[in-house]
Amino acid sequence: MSDDDRNFVDKARDVSKNWDGEEMTPDGMLQEFQLYGYAKRSTFLDQIDKDYQNADTSDLRKYHELVTLRRNMQQVHHTLRKAGR
Question: Which helix (H) or strand (E) is 82 found in, with range?
C-alpha cells in the first residue's frame, strides 16, 4: 500500500504503533486532539480535509471512520475555540 493510498487515520495508527507499540484508536486520537492548541488543531483538520476530499469510498468502514473522526474533531475544535482555547 503506497503512502497515497493511506488516509490520515492509517498514518496516525502507524506512527502510534511505532511510538508505543499499540495502534491508536479514533477515540484516542480525539482525546489527544483536545490537548492541542488552536494552530495545531487547525493543521490537523486541514490534513483530514485533504484526505476527506480524496477519500476512497470503496472501503466503507475506513471511509466511515474518517468521516466520523473528522466530524468529531470539528465539533471539539469549535467547542474549544468558543471557550477561548
Answer: helix 60-82
The whole-model pTM stands at 0.78
Q: Which long-range contacts (CB under 8 A, 24 or more apart) does 44-52 make?
A: 44/73, 45/70, 45/73, 45/74, 45/77, 47/8, 48/8, 48/73, 51/7, 51/8
CA 37, CA 56: separation in Å to the nearest integer? 30
* Tens digits of residue pLDDT in 57-73: 888 888 888 889 999 99
Residues 6 or more apart whose Cβ sits within 8 Å of residue 79: none
Report DSSP letters for 10-42, one per residue: HHHHHHHHHHHSSPPPHHHHHHHHHHS-HHHHH
The three cell numbers locating residue 69: 473522526
Neighbours of 30 (CB within 10 A): 16
Distance between start and end Cα atoms, the chain? 38
